[in-house]
Amino acid sequence: MSAPIPNLARAIRTVLTADADRAAARVGFVRRRRKISGAAFIQTLVFGWIEDPRAPVDALAARCPVPGVTPQAFHKRFTPAATEFVREVLLRAVGQLVAAQPIAVPLLQRFAGVYVEDSTVVALPDTLRDTFPGCGGNTPSAGLAAIKAHVRWELTTGRITGMAFQPGRQPDGRFNATDDPLPAGALRLADLGYFDFGVLTRLSAAGVFWISRLPPNAVAAVGDERPSEVWRLLRQWSGDLLDLRVTAGNETRIGCRLLAFRCPPGVAARRREQSAERQRKKGRVVSERVRVLCEWTVFATNLPADRFTPEQVWVLYRLRWQVELLLKLWRSHGGVGQSHGRLGHRVLCEVYAKLLAVVVRHWLLLTGGGPLARMNPVRAAREARRFALAGADALPCARRLRRVLRSLRDTLALLRPRHRRRKRPSALELLFEPQTPS
């Protein structure tokens, strides 16, 4: 089911008008009455980059709702204050309660929301290396500065519930300490970069469910046995499925469920080849631990065995891939990470503005339903781009904006869902037709 049109129209108008003007005054982007107000600046960036994510600033100036604005005047507005201003509006947008009505899926209805987390890294000009140090690159001058954007997304409603920023060099796992608490009964999915036994312990204590891949060097103890590395346990296991209650970790220990699925021979062989190639480039040989782990897909979870089968845990974790697809869509069809600028504050301002644009575009797509509606995301994004100018023109009038949103909703309803993959069904397909993983 789609997002309620009145709520969506209200959120768009609030963020891009009143919130924008208040934020502009608060950070000093607008100190006196100017031709280009905070709202006009934000609306130009958002709707302009929704329509054409690769448009240069010169082209955006022609779309400004204020007549007579020259490209030079618009360029001058990209100041350090503008960067802080756009960032604040972006965070206020993420705080809006814009969500689609959840589709009834029995497996997901057992949770108080399914939250997936991931991050994307955007390179910045070297002048920002002290504020946002990067991870480096192939040359001494490459990758000196980068910003990492963390995103939390609730899958059943499609609502983006959190976004935060840190230097590109900082590991994902360190972001966990600042996470907003999840509701009890929710399910949290994140990739291996976010793995932290302390975080998982706190989630379990708060009544939050989680599923995570395990690091290659993870240790676990079965019953009263001495802890040993998980790969040694798998090396001795003769079956194709392992499902045990263990105590995992060294310094921080947590009781959890250890699940391991033996991979098909072709998958295991491909993993071994990829590992051998990586080690060859480093002048090393593949260790026995890596060879064993190439044959298994290993999870840790606090989902109880009497309520969730191993196959259901597998399907649930595969949903984590949806946030990677979302971020890929933001980069490839939202222009995040692409800039014509060279000045540090100019590029950073564009990063925040394009993230705001993809958030608003994401709201528009919720008129066609949440992630479980299984729309083709690329085609849906193209339809949202077509409605960008109509939305900008209709913004001053709530009634006209609701009319535009209803028109977009009707257009998205005509999009055919993705074709079903017969040999390897997607995670969304398996939600409705659960089956044993292959």
From TrEMBL:
InterPro entries: RNaseH-like_sf, Transpos_IS4, Transposase_11. It holds the Pfam family DDE_Tnp_1. The keyword DNA-binding applies. One of its GO terms (molecular function) is DNA binding. GO terms for biological process: DNA transposition. NCBIfam families: transpos_IS4_1. Belongs to the transposase 11 family. This is Transposase IS4-like domain-containing protein. It comes from Gemmata massiliana.
